[in-house]
Design brief:
Radius of gyration: 15 Å
Distance between the termini: 25 Å
CATH superfamily of the largest domain: 2,3-Dihydroxybiphenyl 1,2-Dioxygenase, domain 1
Mean pLDDT: 87
CATH architecture of the largest domain: Roll
Helix content: 10-25%
Number of domains: 2
CATH class of the largest domain: Alpha Beta
Length: 135
């Protein structure tokens, strides 16, 4: 059996801001919310029931922006270039747009990058080939 990605864990400074960001921009739902040893842990997923992938938001202050390098990101596919532009327009107004929409070519596609409340990068793209046979 091949491994499959099930979650990404992020350290966040303000859990409610993080929940609001991922609800607004990614349509995620809170599917689990607990406190472990005084630390709040929230799971966010596209699926309200039976999630197969979650973002785990852990209420611990993130490390400095200089370590590790900040190009680590979450990637989201959207239906069209217009959808990338729409996300970028909303993010620009909210002050969270890091990279304006750009065409990165055949492999990267058309994309923009946002920063969540803790500086984690989130990419929205269209036309990005995830299957290596299509690159």
């Amino acid at each position: 059996m091949n491994p499959r990605l099930t979650h990404v864990a992020l350290f966040v400074d303000d859990v409610e801001r993080t929940i609001d960001f991922y609800r607004r921009y990614c349509g995620l739902h809170v599917v689990h919310d607990r406190v472990d040893g005084g630390v709040r842990v929230v799971w966010l997923s596209e699926r309200l029931l039976d999630p197969t992938f979650v973002i785990v938001a852990i209420h611990l202050r993130p490390g400095a922006a200089t370590a590790p390098p900040r190009m680590a990101h979450l990637g989201y596919d959207v239906a069209s270039r217009a959808a990338v532009d729409e996300v970028a327009a909303r993010a620009r107004v909210d002050g969270v747009l890091v990279q304006e929409p750009a065409d990165g070519g055949r492999v990267v596609g058309y994309f923009c990058i946002l920063a969540d409340p803790d500086g984690n990068l989130v990419e929205f793209s269209h036309g990005q080939a995830i299957n290596p046979r299509h690159v």
